[in-house]
Amino acid sequence: MKSIKILAVDGGGIRGIIPAVILDEIQKRLGADLARSFDLISGTSTGGIIALGIGTGAKNAQPYSPAELVNLYVENGPAIFKKSLLTPLRELVGPKYSPDALQAALVQFFGNTEFRAALTPLLVSSYDLQSQLPFFFKSHRIAQNPQYNWPVVSIARATSAAPTFFPPLHLAREMRNYALVDGGVYVNNPSMAAYAEARTLYGSSTEFMIVSVGTGNRQDRIAYRSAKHWGLLGWAKQIVPVFMDSVSEAVDYELRAMPGCSYHRLELEDLGPASNDMDDVTPQNLQNLQTVAQDYLASISGRLDAICAELAEGRGSDMPGIGRARIPA
Q: H/E/C letters for each residue in the chain?
């Protein structure tokens, strides 16, 4: 019996270039769109945008390639994370960036695509401030409940609304209102959430393969002598990367110990010349992110061979109305 194949992509702002480059290599080796290779694709924040790009028919009823997603970041990143002399003052009293450029890029990329255009089950995370509860966008629920169908632009905007960087997204449907922020506040590495969802979706399956793609280990070192003096302003500059990194590392530990689960974590341990920052969109850093990702791929070529060999055996599901049956020829 073939294993259920799961793809999970981390958050990390402009560092989404890294997983996009990695996924481009995997797709080239497989010789098939990733939506045809995975039974479930999940993503958080920048990883949510990637999941929507490769997992919906947003490009004339076909998915975008990971290479096209790299171009999305390179071409639109400088406008999305545009800084000015007033940026340091602005982030003291409100979100660091206006969402306008992000919204414009998402509209240009996804257009009027709806979530029902998913080519395989998709799980995209966000967090609702009003209910103080996780909020998952689940494409595979649409067939039973049309209320799960949202504009893909709205989903992408919600999952990438990183606190302190962008304002929350307000969504309303009938009598319910949501104030949605980046799912990275609780699930920056969505692998465990994706595994739990796949266990529910494919209940008769006992073997699961997870390919988890990160945006690079920040390797931050915060000394006690610095942190002990932090108040609200000090923590405000550090809390987002701290909670995102800690959540990701906890997921790694848990899934590696899970029976019946083949867990493959693809993560650069050292970003080298590339910046740790989620919003460094200087031309040099945009190039550095692509370079370190390519160098990483060269260093794990053997591992990639093994991963792609496992993926090449095919998806583990053949459920009517889910996954393979929904992918157009």
A: CCCEEEEEECCCHHHHHHHHHHHHHHHHHHCCCHHHCCCEEEEECHHHHHHHHHHECCECCECCCHHHHHHHHHHHHHHHCCCCCCHHHHHHHCCCCCCHHHHHHHHHHHCCCEHHHECCCEEEEEEECCCCEEEEEEHHHCCCCHHHCCEHHHHHHHHCCCCCCCCCEEEEECCEEEEEEECHHHHCCCHHHHHHHHHHHCCCCCCEEEEEECCCCCCCCCCHHHHCCCCHHHHHHHHHHHHHHHHHHHHHHHHHCCCCEEEEEECCCCCCCCCCCCCCCCHHHHHHHHHHHHHHHHHCHHHHHHHHHHHHCCCCCCCCCCHHHHCCC
- The CA radius of gyration of the chain, in Å to the nearest whole number, is 19
Tokens for 189, please give them: 């590495």
23 burial (CB, 10 Å; 0-12 / 13-18 / 19+) is buried
Buried b / exposed e along 52-91 (16+ C-beta atoms within 10 A): bbbbbbbeeeebbbbeebbebbbebbbebbebeeeeeeeb
Listed residue (25, 63, 31) closest to 139, CA to CA: 63
Per-residue exposure over 110-146, b if at least 16 CB sit within 10 Å of its own CB, e if not:
beebbbbbbbbbbbbbbbbbeeeeebbbbbbbbeeee
- pLDDT per residue over 150-167, tens digit each? 999 999 999 999 988 999
Q: Tell me the whole-structure pTM to 2 decimals.
A: 0.92
**Do 59 and 170 meet the contact criterion of CB atoms below 8 Å apart?**
no
233-291, pLDDT tens digit by residue? 677 666 666 666 666 677 888 888 888 899 999 999 999 999 999 999 999 999 999 99
Contact criterion met (CB below 8 Å) for 43 and 16: no
Asked whether the beta carbons of 80 and 100 are under 8 A apart, the reply is no
Q: What are phi and psi of 210, to 5 degrees?
A: -120, 125
| Residue 14 near residue 47 (C-beta atoms within 8 A) | no
